[in-house]
Specification:
The chain is α+β, with helices and mostly antiparallel strands. About 45% of the residues lie in helices and about 20% in strands. It has helices at about 5-15, 20-30, 35-45, 80-85, 85-100, 105-110, 120-135, 180-195, 210-225, 230-245, 260-275, 300-305; strands spanning about 60-65, 70-80, 115, 120, 135-145, 150-155, 165, 165-175, 280-285. The chain is flat and about 70 Å long.
């Protein structure tokens, strides 16, 4: 069993909202596995919620670019938010998003693409920009989606400039209906995705390991309350349906009107346009997602200075 460190306890506390000793006990019970410890706490009813462990910590921008049936999104990180507001940095990330339209969505492949007007590839251009701006940068992620018939719609949340901000969303809208109406609907769905962060478009797309993990937690919670097994199974089915409504895009209540499920919104739109409307793909990138930022402990820094 790995040694339980203060950093592990801190990570688990931030992920669950549980007390320090409860977190330490959970880590001891699960051999130091933080993910399993989250489930252990939830089964015991000690976790406030299964919050996402990854936190937005790095600076920079997420940028989107679309061209009819194709869309791309990139994340370019910088050390400070000040640099992200720099016109030169914004121009750089905008160019990267446009280049990504003609790429496969692989970062390494994009790094090897020729950067326009520079005589350098993307990787060398980033090196040049780092030297010029004086701050480290990293092209962390990129994604690209396309549709056969329809449009790719985009939305940027907390926009700093046109097409770039803190969260970028792409939605692939498949339909032979009116392109302008489809684009408007796609943007609304993209805004919804920015707000709700679904795990998948449909139940079939959802990671079945995630479903199994959730069902296990819910079953253990019911079992701990003394419920018989047949009741536990029925309760589990009902709670899994609720889980789908939380994490599956088509099962979510659309934040635009607060009444219909997203699937019903699409069905109604299809009737209005005279052609079925389907979401074939979605991408949501949030700036710094899953990257831990080094936190400065000012008190410890002062104490160290006084003891020196």
């Amino acid at each position: 069993m790995s040694a339980i460190t203060a950093a592990m306890v801190k990570e688990l506390r931030e992920a669950t909202g549980a007390g320090m000793m409860d977190c330490k006990n959970a880590l001891n019970e699960t051999g130091g596995n933080v993910e399993e410890a989250v489930d252990w706490l939830r089964k015991k009813g000690l976790a406030a919620a299964a919050k996402k462990a990854g936190r937005t910590a790095s600076e920079g921008l997420v940028a989107v670019a679309t061209d009819g049936t194709t869309g791309a999104v990139v994340e370019l990180n910088s050390e400070t938010d000040f640099v992200a507001r720099n016109d030169q940095f914004q121009k750089l990330v905008g160019n990267l998003a446009t280049l990504a339209l003609h790429n496969t969505g692989d970062v390494n492949e994009l790094m090897a693409v020729d950067f326009p007007g520079s005589g350098r590839n993307v990787e060398d251009e980033l090196t040049q920009q780092i030297a010029t701006i004086g701050e480290n940068m990293q092209l962390r992620r990129t994604a690209r989606i396309s549709v056969d018939n329809g449009v790719v719609a985009a939305y940027v949340h907390n926009a700093t400039a046109d097409g770039m901000g803190k969260i970028g969303v792409l939605i692939g809208m498949e339909s032979t209906g009116d392109a302008a109406k489809l684009q408007a609907l796609g943007k609304q769905i993209a805004m919804h995705v920015a707000a709700t962060r679904p795990e998948s478009v449909s139940k079939d797309d959802l990671d079945q390991d995630l479903v199994a993990r959730e069902r296990n937690v819910l079953s253990e919670q019911a079992r701990a309350s003394g419920k018989p097994e047949d009741i536990i199974e029925k309760m589990g089915d009902g709670r899994i349906r609720k889980f789908y409504e939380e994490v599956v895009l088509l099962e979510q209540t659309c934040v635009i009107d607060g009444e219909r499920k997203v699937s019903q919104v699409l069905e109604d739109a299809g009737k209005e346009m005279g052609a079925p409307v389907r979401i074939s793909a979605m991408v949501r990138l949030a700036l710094g997602e899953g990257v831990e930022k080094e936190e400065e402990d000012f008190a410890a820094e002062v104490a160290a200075t006084l003891s020196a």
